[in-house]
Design a protein that fits this description.
By secondary structure, the protein is mainly alpha-helical. The protein has eight helices and four strands. The chain has one domain. Strands 1-2 form a two-stranded antiparallel sheet. A two-stranded antiparallel sheet has the order 3-4.
Length: 218
């Protein structure tokens, strides 16, 4: 004799513990797919490059990172070592400590020396215990200014290439190919990351909604 999965117990009541529930998986998958597609579209349309004030700092930073990476080790070292010097200058106690800091971050220090048109030894000869505090402040302000000027120069170039009406980049004849290619590379990278981010967020929400709807309707 064949019995169905739902059985009648001796008391005459249906044994609901043995009734197979309908899976919520199809609704969850459908919600996930719909949410991901909607999120991807939102991410594609989202303006991650500029706002009403101009090019966003976050995007200009991506362009700067690409240019530094393409420029080679020295350029990357100068950028990195500037930050180290800025961070550690306040803790310097003696002229000897200052010279050691510069020696350990020689690319940034050499960049400074070339712009001062003096060797590191010539610069250090002018620094004493008495004027150390004043010179530390001078050095720190100089390195901060160099960092900020480099970033602002790149941001200005990105802004110059940005067509705010067409919401896209256009290459002026005065901009070098490697700089423009860095801008396009950053644009592609950030757009892809934004699309994936919004697809993941709305996909998860869509999956949850699909699961709930499926549960209530079934």
């Amino acid at each position: 004799m064949t019995y169905s999965y739902s059985v009648i117990n001796p008391s005459g009541y249906k044994d609901v513990s043995k009734v197979k529930e309908k899976s919520a998986l199809p609704g969850t998958i459908l919600g996930l797919g719909a949410g991901a597609a909607a999120g991807g579209f939102i991410g594609y349309k989202k303006n991650f490059i500029s706002d009403k004030t101009g090019i966003k700092n976050s995007f200009a930073k991506k362009v700067q990172d690409k240019l530094l990476n393409d420029a080679g080790d020295t350029a990357k070292n100068i950028h990195k070592q500037r930050e180290i010097i800025i961070k550690k200058l306040d803790k310097i106690k003696t002229p000897e400590d200052l010279k050691e800091l510069f020696s350990k971050n020689k690319d940034a220090a050499q960049d400074m020396c070339s712009k001062f048109k003096k060797s590191l030894d010539e610069i250090m000869q002018t620094i004493t215990k008495e004027n150390l505090k004043e010179n530390k402040k001078t050095f720190k302000n100089w390195f901060i200014a160099e960092r900020n000027n480099d970033f602002q120069s790149i941001k200005n170039i990105v802004q110059y290439c940005w067509d705010k009406d067409g919401k896209n980049f256009v290459k002026p004849s005065t901009i070098k190919d490697n700089v423009y290619n860095a801008i396009l590379s950053a644009q592609k990278k950030v757009k892809t990351a934004t699309i994936l981010k919004y697809a993941a967020i709305t996909g998860a929400v869509g999956a949850a909604i699909g699961f709930i709807i499926n549960k209530f309707l079934n």
